[in-house]
Structures are given as structure tokens and as C-alpha cells.
Design goal:
The protein has about 90 residues and is an all-alpha fold. The chain has one domain. The chain has three helices and no strands.
């Protein structure tokens, strides 16, 4: 379960990095509309980055507070996936 969460966070970071690269690539572009979109994108990226950091911290706190529940949930999810994959 932790691996899936890590993978999701990595994918979200990759998307945010790509968006940041796009913003940087259009830095030399002119036009009021481009500047407006770039500003909104930068604000959205910053908000998303803060949200990811908060969510990651909260998830770690919950797992540390209830490690047996986290293990149980991961085991149950693995069991369900195993059953679904075993079916033909």
C-alpha cells in the first residue's frame, strides 16, 4: 500500500515538474493572456505542492499512530487484488 502511495506522489510530482518546466519555457513569450495563464498556473502549482506536503505528512502520522490498522488495510487490499487476479 505504501508503494502505491509513493508511486502516486511521484507521479503527481512529475506532473507538477512538467508544468513548472512549461511555465519556464513560456517565460519569454509575450502577450497579456500568456502572462495571465502563467500566473494562474504558478499559483496552482504552489497550492498543489503545499497540499502534497501536508497530505504526505498527515498520512505518515496516521500510519505511525495506527500501524496495525495500516498493515491490516494493506493486507486486505493485497488479498482482494490477489483474488481478482487469480480469477479467470
Amino acid at each position: 500500500m505504501e508503494a502505491a502511495g509513493d508511486k502516486l506522489l511521484k507521479e503527481l510530482r512529475d506532473v507538477m515538474d512538467a508544468a513548472e518546466d512549461l511555465v519556464k519555457a513560456t517565460a519569454s513569450e509575450g502577450g497579456e493572456r500568456v502572462r495571465e495563464i502563467r500566473g494562474r498556473t504558478e499559483a496552482a502549482l504552489e497550492k498543489a505542492r503545499k497540499g502534497l506536503q501536508e497530505a504526505g505528512g498527515e498520512l505518515q502520522e496516521r500510519i505511525r499512530a495506527q500501524p496495525l490498522a495500516a498493515v491490516g488495510i494493506a493486507a486486505a487490499a493485497g488479498l482482494v487484488v490477489g483474488i481478482l487476479l487469480a480469477r479467470k
